[in-house]
Amino acid sequence: MEAPNEEEKENYWIEFKTKSGKIKFNVVRIQEAIGLGQRVKEHEVYVDGIKVVKETTIGYKRLHRLKLGIVDAYSVRIKIVKAKGTPLISSVGLHFDPFWNPKEDVTSKMVH
């Protein structure tokens, strides 16, 4: 499944693109400015246009250990699907955890 296009006005996006080479990571960190209230109700993460995470709230800090394991990507897009008002994301990070090594079949981990 590909990420929705830019014309979707009802959703909020955060997108990272590399200018040269790929980014290697296996954990996506998202944080809300929780002092102003928790606002995100549902969000998704896309890596090179493929949905890899579909979850609910973010709160102070949400770590998504990718079930795909290590990915090399040109772009990462975080889509806020539902929120109470305008979402306030304070920080996003792409991390490499050398100890995260999912043991299950990779093809069964793609979010549909």
Word description of this protein:
InterPro entries: Glyco_hydro_29. This protein has 112 residues and is an all-beta fold. The protein has one domain: Galactose-binding domain-like (Jelly Rolls, Sandwich). Helix content is 0%, strand content 46%. The chain has no helices and nine strands. The strands form three sheets. Strands 1-8-4-5 form a four-stranded antiparallel sheet, with no helix packed on it. A three-stranded antiparallel sheet has the order 6-3-9, with no helix packed on it. A hairpin with a 2-residue loop joins β4 and β5. The mean pLDDT is 87.
In short:
With 112 residues, this protein is an all-beta fold.
